[in-house]
Amino acid sequence: MRHHPASPSSRLRLAFASLLLVVPAAARAQAARISGERVVPDGPLWIQKAVVYQIYPQTFYDSNGDGVGDLPGIIQKLDYVKSLGVDAIWINPFFDSPFNDAGYDIRDYYEVAPRYGTNDDARRLFEEAHRRGLRVLFDYVISYTAIDHPWFVDSTREERSPHSNWYVWTDNAWKSEEGELCNRFVHGYGQRNGNFMLNFYWSEPALNFGFHQPDPEKKWQLPVDHPDVLALREELRKVLRFWMDMGADGIRADMAGALVKGKGSDEDTKAFWRDIRGTFRTAYPEGFMVSEWSGPRDALDGAFHADFFHWFEGYNDLAQKESWRILNGFSEGHSFFDSAGKGNIAHFLSKYLEQYEATRSKGYVCLPLGNHDLARLNVRRTDAELEMIMAFGITMPGVPFLYYGNEIGMRQLYGLPQIEGAYYPRSGARTPMQWTPGRNLGFSTADPAKLYLPVDAATDAPNVEAQQADPRSLLNKVRRLIALKHSEPALAAYAEFVPLYAKENAYPLVYARADGADVVLAVFNPAARPESAEFPFATPYRSLRLLAGKDVAVTRRAGTLRFDVAGQTYAVYRLER
Ligand code: GLC
Fold this sequence. Notes:
With 577 residues, the protein is an alpha/beta fold.
């Protein structure tokens, strides 16, 4: 049982200590305390109840029949997006690119890639989204550029240019580096006598944010306040302003923790992002900054409003612990959300709580419901199982991010070609959105051989049209779950999270969310067998009102609560007082 520490920095407090007075002292001592204390991190109000929908532009909707999705296609589908009840969309990079990494490798920060449309389409997309009350986050990818970005091409030349220092280059092509970053250098590229550092794939040279403690012996390691480094930073701020001024509502910052180099560089990287946060505060106070840092303690330390928790020990325990589910060779074991019932939610929770407790007053820890780098949630899962994962993700603290297609249970596909850096499991999770039955599942009118990736060929491939018509479909259940996030105060991003029953290698999982006197209880038993949980519970209530899932047997004794839960069942309850 974990207790949340008091947060001295909280701006608002609502202590409901009096609710505890009615239970005997002994029971009180053991009960996980649901205080309902409201701790609201600084940030725009709209993110407090927001759900964000992630759109992969390549494969969402192809409006011109060339086999690749595009921005006008996204515009055409905004009514559908709105109908999900989400508040915002995050679109993966749509900028000019040679597409060695699906567009993360940006060649021109100021231009939409022709295959996606034009800058005017982007402007129209922002306007059309706003007309529907939707916000748009763009992918701010600044730790590297494409290898054929003109800045980089310039930096490969022997003669000096304003861009020579904008990338990390050593000063001797024959000399290898040692230590942590040694295998990140590319030798023998361009005219310049040196090696350049990459940040991810070979084709992604690292932009130069300087070194935390430059080695005095290595003159090529620039300090973070070197004028060329500062000039680069200003240019990148210009990029931010360009898209925000055009109408974007925030950023998803790619590899946000990987800017300044060298041991101990986190503080300098944070300082950069705090500065960007300053720009948001003054120029875009409604703007949302979420990072792919996977280190909420660092990311939320004055810099971002939210950070994803997925490249992190503990995340795999939820739904992709099996090697045949994660498909990238990085995990082995059992997911908690699996009918075998062999997972360990306590492992997830211990890692999660470390971050949550340390950052609760500062920002939000976000658990993605799939994304373009992860396998689909639907790797051999039923709709009922997928619904349970959705209910978990939507009722946990923070801002849920829902990957396109997971709301209808799109499946991970196999045997697809690696395309644009999409090694397993990426390509099988990036296939075209399934809108209708029939040709290309409604994604495109192109010849099927021309599609960016093939569509699901299964005769029972899920699609939006069929699920819209069925009130019991996964799609409609997900819509109802998203609506709860808005209607239940206890499901606000900031509302308190209290695990009530979460044991090593045991089922079910029970937790409370609370905001003042509003309390929601959630219980999940993904195992195929019945399971029960008995735990101290000191909060008084009249009855439990089922908000989602199926009723479970509830036994109430003085100071304890017992849930007997059938196999593969979940319930979300509101406490009626
Ligand atoms: C992020 C992106 C991923 C990309 C990588 C390098 O992790 O999500 O798709 O390949 O950064 O940019």
